[in-house]
Amino acid sequence: MGATPAPPPSGRPRPPRPEPAVGAPCRLGAPRTGAPLRVLELFAGIGGAAAAVGGRAPIVAAIDVDPWARAVYTAWFPAHPWVARNLAHPRARLPEAELWWLSPPCQPYTVRGARRDVDDPRAAPLHALIARIGAGEGPEALALENVPGFAGSRSEAALCAALATAGYETRSFALCATACGVPMERRRYYRVAARGGLRPPARPRPQPQALGALLDPLPAPETAVDAATEARFGHSFHRVDPADPTAVLACFTAAYGRSPVYAGSYLGAPGGPVRRLSADEGLRVFGFPAHCRFPAGLPPRQPWGLLGNSLAVAAARVVLASFAPFDDGADTVRGVDVASLAVGLATPGDRRAALALRDADPSAHGPPADGAAAKVAAEALLAPGPAGPVWRVADCFGLVGLARGDGGLLLHPGAADPASAAAVRAALRAAGAPA
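Above: the chain's sequence. Below: its structure in token form.
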């Protein structure tokens, strides 16, 4: 199953692993030539960013202080140096890298964390890094991930000010895993910045996955929910039928398995017994590679505690496409492939299509008017009760447009140009839709 996990914080520590070469902080300047871009994972956790990077760039180090995360990360990515370092220290030494990936603690920006923002001690490491960026000691590029509550925070304002002072081009956007074809809602705030400029915004290239294909054929016994818990809290369970090909899980938190409600979904056919997802099923839903399995010996609730703080790997790949070395067209698309248009009939129950539209960020993926139209279409699909047939046009990359029964056409931002719009209309007419 993997390496023996590290001891808890109170246990006897292991001898430290050799650290990567360190030196003066990376200075801003022209992009390097003739060598691959190097990535530094800050607040690395179990390696969601490493999984998204894959083999496309070297990871110079993963920095985090959680010993359980270390046990998992080093089992999965043994070639990546792990550094246990307090990033709140203003002179903490960092390995040189051209790209920083930051996933700082989210609790300062959540309701459960009381939204203390900069007054929360858990925000101190991020603000130490922000100070470095503002002083010109940042990398050539960076990407930051956090909960939606980070938007509008004082921490966001401090980060934006530092990026402006240091001369970065930057933008932020919201992205949900559903927009990437993942059968799980996980909406997150992302900010990307680069000293030498960013790639133009792109929409995700969805690779839809049915939830049932990601589940164990024989559920583990420990995933069963006891009768007493179901009797007491079952009315508040977010219950998903694994046989439903359009099923979408709720967002998982680190409290899944400890908190009976509002921490993630339960699986169960209507009227049947319910169960939790196993941690290995969770890894597949989050998009981790097949070799990633939690090591034996972790406390029973620790895997979900780590996974609930991690990344949807498919979404992270979309974010990385903001930087030229990662913009290979595998995870994002610009424009519409009108040659591969297909037409189908969508109903109000087509939740997957609706979520993909709803979670598109119009500011990042197209003109605001088209983004607003897409969201109207999404709301129509998600609304309960009869809404009449809605014709759906999709290319090989995902949803492109919807035609209402009254003949109105609602286009995805990716199909906003006149040629694409005309192709969509022609495809709809050929299929008998009133467009």
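The domain at 211-285 is CATH 3.90.120.10 (DNA Methylase; Chain A, domain 2).
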